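subagent[fold] <- orchestrator: predict structure for attached chain, return tokens only, no commentary.
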Amino acid sequence: MSGVGNAELLRQLDIKVVSDLPGVGEEYQDHYTTLTLYRVSNETVTTDVFLRGVKEVQKELFAEWETSPEKARLSSNSIDAGLKIRPTGAELKKMGPEFNELWDRYFKNKPDKPVMFGSIVSGGYADHTLLPPGKSITMFQYLEYPASRGKIHVKSQNPYSYKKTREIARRMDAFRGELTSHHPHFHPASPAAAKDIDIRTAKEIYPDGLTVGIHMGTWHKPGEPYDASKEHEDIVYTKEHDEAVDNCVADPVETTWHSMGTCVMKLREQGGAVDKRMSDNLGTNTYSSALLVGEKAADLIVEELGLKLRISHVPVPHAPIPTGKPSTQQVR
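subagent[fold] -> orchestrator:
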């Protein structure tokens, strides 16, 4: 244990206090997000086959990376598009006084600040052993400026962003249905009910399958061939629908994998962890600066202790053995 942190808490655990910094571990924050999956046409280029581990496809993509990484498909994170969302006046009226107070204080007069952000990932961002065959895209939506601090617990289950990204997905030419296991469970007879893969796309996946489109109660029924050009009206949600979205959001909500705030770059007296002798006029991203300082500190420690470190070669997930070729390679 480092012994750096809130002295009172460290002593309770019988840890020697090296530096009493009460702010360490406080002010934890992150964007919290949910992910929803949608079916797309078999012609759509996605990462699904690569992620499922098809050797021929993986070999092709890894070869691209080794030859011309700057042009390879693996150089992309597969997030093909993003959108920033601010509610309309009509939507604000439905969001209640608590959210409106935050809106008036933090967002209303700052038109460059979105409440939500949504992205489109070209592939199923999930465990593919749990997904059906075919191709998918993932819509993930998260709060841009969450108000929660400390130990994060969900305080609001607002369904607003799910509805917006759903409408965007339904209007895409590649859209072929919703992966119902990754959506709220609406009453099957309601207009908001999620509809899985359409019958034409299903038959393309299993052209010789004998059970494609089989009707099994409300669990699955064959869908009509999908035509995105016919989708012009937004889905109308009732109070019961909103409750279904609330219940769905409360289950899979998670952080967006870049937590921050537990070692704030400000003075100790202000709950931070920075020596007051340090300059406070950085003209850059403070996180990048912290990484730079940390890396330099590691170099100094290695030098002082006379250590020799072996840095592993890991350019891509499969970590190939170096071939001896120059690291800067020519474009094909």
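orchestrator: received. Logging for downstream: DSSP finds nine helices and eight strands in the chain. Residues 151-157, 326-332 have pLDDT under 50 and may be disordered.
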